[in-house]
Amino acid sequence: MAPKILFVLTSHNKLGNLDKPTGWYLPELAHPYHVLHKKAEITVASPKGGESPLDPSSVEAAKDDVSVNFLKNNESVWKNTQKLDQFVGKAKDFDAIFYVGGHGPMFDLVDNPISQQLIREFWEADKIVSAVCHAPAVFYDVKLSDGSLLVAGKEVTAFTNTEEEQAGLTDVVPFLPENALQKASGGKFVKAAEPWGEKVVISGRLITGQNPASATAVGEAIAKALGI
Ligand SMILES: *[C@@H]1O[C@H](CO)[C@@H](O)[C@H](O)[C@H]1NC(C)=O
To answer: Which CATH architecture group holds 4-226?
Structure first.
């Protein structure tokens, strides 16, 4: 039977206090979806359910074939998401959970008790827990049943401070993923040699990717961890 993966998208569409749209970042869903959709059964959820907002700036930026085809052929993937709270208590029905990046998750999936509970349940049920770009930020404050932080002592990566600076959004995000994960992991944050370079970190069942360029490799790492 094909493994089952729960993909989690944001429902948040506004960039902090700026009057600018945000959401999820096109290649960070398109690329892992491309790698995994024929080998796994993918279910997509978001806090509010229904349509999850696609960051229009990512449509401008991502002109690769996989992203363009996904945009053209796969609207149903992000327009008909299920509500996240339905999956509480269902970790046993899945093999992995994957959080798609973009700035949206920084606003609605970090201090989100439903999301934190899901991550804890997936982790404690020995499932794969994964995310790319800004989405690893959703892990930083997740506490396990014994009170310890999920990422404590584990190598992790995410969108870096330099990348946020170059994106011009350092003062707009509620916090910087690199700083939060560096602290929560106890100094185990790692990154590519150069900003925007591909970097995937596999810490046992915790899989994180640094940025949009890492999205395909994160999908491949999830596939490998699932043995597909
Ligand atoms: C996504 O698009 C591909 C073709 O590029 C198709 O094979 C697949 O069934 C689509 N999936 C969904 C859920 O629309």
So the answer is: 3-Layer(aba) Sandwich (3.40)
